[in-house]
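SEVERITY: medium
COMPONENT: batch folding queue
REPORTER: lab tech (J.R.)

DESCRIPTION
The queue accepted two submissions in a row. Attaching both inputs and their returned structure tokens so the on-call engineer can compare them side by side.

ATTACHMENT 1
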Amino acid sequence: MIFTLWVAFGLYHLAFTLIFALAFSKYRHAENERSPAISVVIAARNELKNLKQLIPALLQQDYMDFEVIVALDRCTDESKKYLKALAHPKVKSVEISEVPTGWNPKKYALTSAIDTASGEWLVLTDADCVPLSNQWLKNVTGNMKDGTEIILGVSPYRAHGTFLSHFIRFESFMTAFSYISKAHYGRPYMGVGRNMAIRKSFFHKVGGYLPFKSITGGDDDLFIQKNATTTNTRVVLGRESLMETEPEQTWKAYFHQKVRHLSVGHFYKKSDQLILGLNHGVHFLFVTGCLFNTTHSFFWPTLLFYLFIKFMSYRFAAGKIGTSINYLLLPLVDMLYALLTPVIALRSKLVKDIKWKN
């Protein structure tokens, strides 16, 4: 009976995995003949080191009509001095000395930058990111069609060779695996603010971040939850479309980051909470169920079949995204991901004082 339940959990989770993987076969990259004006928007607080890497990479983009707007959120470093010294016509800055009551600092910084943007499209990213190609902006706009208001991209973490780095890359891949798949099936539910584009007129039409301006986090996924539809949202994949970012260097920092990310989950639509919760729950039960079935004669063949399907599914999706994961570590990171996700999600519901940056 226990083995039968374990197999049922595994098959159920594999069904989710296969359905999500098949969505990537639907992706077709299109070349957009139009080149709309773009405003790259960045919120930064004491990010001088990162800005010195990001801004030059942005200025090398093979795209004619774009600007870079950096919102300097109460900076005490020399970020302002650096941007001023650049004296580049494409780079603008907005200085924020005080955050109004009732506003989350990052959302206020982004809104302040967006208010000064002149581009038809807002392309959002973070200061600790770097595009993997000078074709990034061309790729972001490549899949625009009439009626497109939102474009979801992928932002993997940089590899550093440590187990933590491999795990964070896997966890980030799993997040993209899920939200890109659901967007392909016409059910977009989240995106990442490190690589996302929004039509400026649409952003203002729906009220921007005002409906959730005080909430820490959610400048990406809550905006998608409220405003993305089957017809107005598209995705962009491929290595040249990626915006790579630096992973956390310690487990403590990683946990803090994930708690912040997952803390907005209870604002999701009930249907999204149910589907995501069910998938994570079944994954958790399958992995923990391994402990009670190791002596069964069919345990190892079943586990190998489970890992093979996952390997093939993830390899196919990763190829479409343009990234990679360490497949040798797949059994270990998959198990750890299954065990940690519910724990961090529970922790995120208990923590009250969550901040972007102090």
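ATTACHMENT 2
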Amino acid sequence: MHNLKERINKKEVVLGTMLSEVYTPNVVRVIKAGGMEFIIIDSEHGYFDYSQIANIVAVCNGFDIPIIVRVPNIDRASITKVLDMGVDGLLIPMVNTALDAENVVNYAKYAPLGARGISTTRAHTNYEPPKLSEYIEHANNKTIILAQIETKQALLNADKIIEVEGIDALIIGPNDLAIDLGTPGDFETASMEKSIETVVASARKAKKPCGIVASNIGFLHKCKDMGMTIFSCNSEVGMIKSASMKIVKEFYES
């Protein structure tokens, strides 16, 4: 089995990508064959329904592909459903306060850490649930929770957010953050650099990792040099478009 959470906790560099629209389940096998180390299903902006997510997750579990879902919001129903499908973890958008983080943990972790609802004869136990007390501990240890930092308010509360028990890492969402910083579409700014430094410092203080979602390799390298270790680069749509553009250019210019 893969060890994504172990690698994240050890602050090893990991690189994944977003699945933004394509819901053919085997697309995740193609992405894995390309070398990506994990995949995030974007259910915040993507129009995936639950059955499509479940099909993709089933393939990921069958072929040992680490799979995370970015849920639409901090909501008990969506968090419960995707965890019961057997995902490895969650990327939570717009975590602005420690209370937001605590609510996520409450929905995503079983007691005593949280209050996740229990229904065990499902995909997340491979339909063979062990003794409940053993499974609860296993599931709580296995589930990854990544809190997305996307606003100035979140930056101010980063220290408190990352200290919430059950939150594994902070992940900057630079598009929304850049808008809140007053520089929409521009990540190469002093304010963004300061924001990255703030998140890195907060994570380091809590002895936890941090990362970012972006598509520019040079920018990702800069974030890595600043101390980040978790990276989601581009999406299946972006990669298809880039490859198409490259083929067209080579065909007409060679």
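NOTES FROM REPORTER
The mean pLDDT is 97.
No errors were logged for either attachment.
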